[in-house]
Automatic annotation (TrEMBL):
GO terms for molecular function: transmembrane transporter activity. GO terms for cellular component: membrane. SUPFAM superfamilies: MFS general substrate transporter. The chain crosses the membrane at residues 12-31, 43-68, 75-93, 99-124, 136-155, 161-183, 195-218, 238-256, 268-287, 293-313, 325-347, 353-374. It is a multi-pass membrane protein. It holds the Pfam family MFS_1. InterPro entries: MFS, MFS_dom, MFS_trans_sf, MFS_Transporter. It is found in: Membrane. Residues 201-380 form the Major facilitator superfamily (MFS) profile domain. This is MFS transporter. It comes from the Bacteria. PROSITE patterns: MFS. Keywords: Membrane, Transmembrane, Transmembrane helix. It comes from Luteimonas marina.
Amino acid sequence: MPTDHRRPQQLATRAAFFVPGFVIAAWAPLVPFAKIRGGLDDAALGVLLLCLGLGSLVAMPLAGALAARLGCRRVMLGSVALMLATLPLLALLSSPWLLGAALLLFGASIGAMDCTMNIQAVVVERESGRPMMSGFHAFYSIGSLAGATGATLLLSTGTAIVAVTLVVAALALLVTALSAGAWRADRAPRDAAVFALPRGVVVAIGTVCFISFLAEGAMLDWSAVFLHEAKGVDVERAGWGFVAFNLAMTATRLVGDRAVARLGRARAVLAGGLTGGIGLAVATSAPGLEAGLAGYALLGVGCANIVPVMFSLAGEQTRMPERLAIPAVTTMGYAGVLAGPALIGFVAQGASLSIAFVLVSVALVAASVLGAAIRIGPGD
């Protein structure tokens, strides 16, 4: 592909990462409101949040198959349409059953977008001839930071939560309209397989992503609840924990490609897991809002480059074609989003939310050790 065609696709891929990060982060400050509106305890909220992960998990293999047949652009456009249609419902519904159904559709749209944009990102990175994956994922974090910050600021000024979701939807629609023309439309050959179970090194890559996504999901779904209930932060300001996490993750990912090139993938992943595990432990055990925000920021720094490195490895391994490996890794990763919120809720109900967070921090360190040991070679 000529060089002058690559730049628009690179910019459009960054925009594709921005949109789901922006939209789903706007949900984070709304979780305490949904819990109060539905009269839910920790366990019930965990079950409800399971719907978001379940929707993502089911949609990802389907999205990979559709992208192979229809091209990434069509699948991403359909995904954006569904996520923007369901977001306002999350601010309106009070019935746990209806809210669960809306979260199922919302999760499906996010999962389909995440899977397909990573398929596009692997191809665009390879055609560029240089590391770009951390930079692409940085724009997911930028979107998350913008969504969480904007929603929290609007809520802090007394804006109705439905109005907040409509503002987020309008801005995401604008970004999509400006970038979708450069999203990739190429398809797999008609006789090519469109689905396969993960195997070989892809299983290890997916396992690391599972735990990293679980940690990120803990911040999305439980950080505001923890600050409000365990540290006594006003519900309107509890969203700042997720903002601190995203700000640190965004800054780290913006320099992530250079950091990974300098440290090497193994050391970058190991250092990230150790930093993130320590950060979550600090946020959980140290008293006061300031310590909590500092710990969440360390977790953001630690998690920042683990998943981008894993997706780059998934694009380079030879055990599975990338059009099959990326959906498999994405699905395994988002199984962490599926299992994480519910498991955290059950542990919080049976013991405490603090203990649940400590267990997540230990798992993150273990995942980084596994990720650092992964090697790509003949036969994988």
